[in-house]
Design a protein that fits this description.
By secondary structure, the chain is an alpha/beta fold. It is 50% helix and 17% strand. Bound molecules: uridine-5'-diphosphate and magnesium ion. Uridine-5'-diphosphate binds next to strand 1 and helix 3.
Amino acid sequence: MNKLPVLSIVIPCYNEEEVLTETMKQLNRLLQDLMGERLISDESYLLFVDDGSKDNTWEMINKESEMNPFVQGLKLAKNAGHQNALWAGLMSVIDKCDCSVSIDADLQDDHNVIRDFILKYWDGYDIVYGVRKSRTKDTIFKRQTAKAFYQMMIKMGVNIVDDHADFRLMSNRAMKNLQQFKEVNLFLRGLVPLVGFKSAKVYYHRLERMAGESKYPLKKMLAFSMDGITSFSVTPIRLVTTTGIIFAFLSVLAALYAVISKLSGNTVSGWTSIILSVWFIGGIQLMSIGLIGEYIGKIYKETKQRPRYFIDKHVVNGQKKD
Ligand code: UDP
Ligand code: MG
């Protein structure tokens, strides 16, 4: 490489006023250091994406962009969710940088390893995944549920990188490949490995959230995992079919049993067994219909091809762009 690469760091923010000042300070310092070390071009910048926050997040981003030429802001018209906000940021930096790094606003993912990401980029890697070596700072509940989720996804045949969240570097051409995925239900962790190209992993320790609380309460986390599974795997539907086959087989045995009982004159019908099977089979059926409905719901959403997000404004140097 004879020209220094332009790096854009994309940070989705939702109600992050408590951490933003510190995050801006630390990321800015890192950016300056990397420029000083001549690892990235002086045209590199930070892009804060405000995902329809209700607090002062946008005002803070806007103010910083006025004072700091290395800070840009993108304001979404309403809350679109982490994945969509990240996507909005990445798509807006395509062709305006040589590589991008995405990182959460709370800096739970150690931003100092971005330097290693860049070194990998210099070595010719198009995608660099940040992988958590330890997450002792997360609650036991979060750790266990996340672990179970990753393992389940991998078992279901989804190609995701274990213990990697959305902290990664992508080259411009990798982002262009990513852009070609048109699905509305975004699960970037599953999509990025499908992009191809040479990829590397960089390990780090996951830190504590600097301030504020997680913007991923249990309800959002469950919805996110359900999205991940149903967007990438048809294994649950296959499980339903397998259960159906097993029960069909069992019902033949039950019929045989009933006939033999009848022939042997032992025809006292058991209310308990009937009621039990009605409830049991009913339950399985409802569950199966629900699961299939989940996929049909996805097809319904995908066929509409609704826009994933709306941009309100994009500011550079405090000035509105395009
Ligand atoms: N986030 C967002 N939109 C949302 C929810 C979260 O842009 O609707 C951002 C949030 O500001 C943060 C990142 O997504 O930068 C991850 O959220 P958080 O750190 O709360 O999740 P956790 O680390 O607890 O999984
Ligand atoms: Mg976090």
